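sry for the spam today, last one i promise. struct tokens for design, 383 residues
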């Protein structure tokens, strides 16, 4: 099949969406498909490698003129290239389509792939309301709308007329994160302290300050630090967390800063538990939680909407209240798990994540688009 893709978010500017989009393109190529990818907001250049073609454009879908340029290019490319399927890999492209002031009939199926949707958010300011309106208008052009589980439910409830287009799809996790389920780290650790790990952008809503206070509280209870804590990820709050760890006199805490995505799985492999008591409401999918599950690590997390369909309390992880007491109690609960209990939780964690493996997500995407077999067999030439 020939895929025509559009996005503002792609490597090497690593972030959740950039990683997810680059993996999705990688999965399509590995499955034997051809991909032409348009990226906006970059210096103009074109790359051609085998069945992959990347075209960079200097304009971006962040202002009115950029939206119009993006929409016009998309319409022209659909009519000129006639691919089997068009993928809009971020909501800005859907919004650009919604700004087209006239009726457009696109000759090929167009689908969007995004974890969240502005159309489900409580937009209290004018810009947010306008963005949501244009996104909803852009949905009219789409064949399918792929979003995460929690977003799908809310989108269907708020806009039931879209129900026939909505499909549930998580974000892809590459093979290197998937540990062997029968080979987790020894539990209890044969030597040293168990490692509890967090990963993600260092921002106030992630709740790492609560983890540090909880570890200090456990030290006060037991007279010694009971776990080693690894914090992986850079961002504006990192220095504050480092200073807090020093103030609390925690000696078993390590801050690694930004780690290249393709090296991240090595950190998960050495940890025993993953902990991230996020207080934010913007986690539309929860990539780092699923990366941890794929690595056979039980997860400690607050009960965010989309994580309710990923984390099963007491089976592959634990839900906690975003409080020092709640986190300290949960860590204590983890420390008294037997070897068989920990092994079972690790196995369930791994099994839960399999539905988000890269190959499975690509298969589910193509299947969910409901393209007929004859269409899939045409247009095999590269772009």
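last one done:
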């Amino acid at each position: 099949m020939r895929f025509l893709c559009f996005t503002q978010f792609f490597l090497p500017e690593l972030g959740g969406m950039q990683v997810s989009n680059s993996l999705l393109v990688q999965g399509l190529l590995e499955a034997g498909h051809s991909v032409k990818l348009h990226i906006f907001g970059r210096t103009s250049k074109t790359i051609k490698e085998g069945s992959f073609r990347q075209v960079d454009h200097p304009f971006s879908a962040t202002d009115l003129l950029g939206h119009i340029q993006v929409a016009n290019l998309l319409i022209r490319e659909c009519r000129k290239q006639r691919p089997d399927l068009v993928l809009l890999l971020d909501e800005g492209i859907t919004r650009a389509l919604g700004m087209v002031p006239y009726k457009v009939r696109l000759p090929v199926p167009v689908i969007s792939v995004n974890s969240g949707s502005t159309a489900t958010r409580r937009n209290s300011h004018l810009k947010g309301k306008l963005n949501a309106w244009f996104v909803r208008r852009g949905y009219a052009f789409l064949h399918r709308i792929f979003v995460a589980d929690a977003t799908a439910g809310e989108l269907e409830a708020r806009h039931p007329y879209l129900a026939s287009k909505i499909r549930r799809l998580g974000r892809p996790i590459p093979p290197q994160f998937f540990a062997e389920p029968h080979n987790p780290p020894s539990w209890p650790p044969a030597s040293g302290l168990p490692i509890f790990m967090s990963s993600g952008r260092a921002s106030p809503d992630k709740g790492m300050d609560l983890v540090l206070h909880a570890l200090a509280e456990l030290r006060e209870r037991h007279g010694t630090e009971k776990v080693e804590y690894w914090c992986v990820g850079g961002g504006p709050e990192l220095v504050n967390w480092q200073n807090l760890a020093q103030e609390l006199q925690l000696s078993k805490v390590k801050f690694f800063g930004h780690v290249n995505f393709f090296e991240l799985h090595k950190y998960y492999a050495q940890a025993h538990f993953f902990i991230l008591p996020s207080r934010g409401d913007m986690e539309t999918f929860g990539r780092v939680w699923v990366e941890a599950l794929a690595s056979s690590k039980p997860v400690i997390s607050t009960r965010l909407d989309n994580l309710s369909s990923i984390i099963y309390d007491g089976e592959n992880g634990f839900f906690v209240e975003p409080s020092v007491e709640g986190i300290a109690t949960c860590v204590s609960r983890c420390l008294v798990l037997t070897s068989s209990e920990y092994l079972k939780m690790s196995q369930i964690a791994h099994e839960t994540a399999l539905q988000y493996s890269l190959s499975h997500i690509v298969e589910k995407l193509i299947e969910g688009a409901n393209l007929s077999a004859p269409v899939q067999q045409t247009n095999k030439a590269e772009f």
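The domain at 2-172+357-376 is CATH 3.40.50.2000 (Rossmann fold). ok im logging off now
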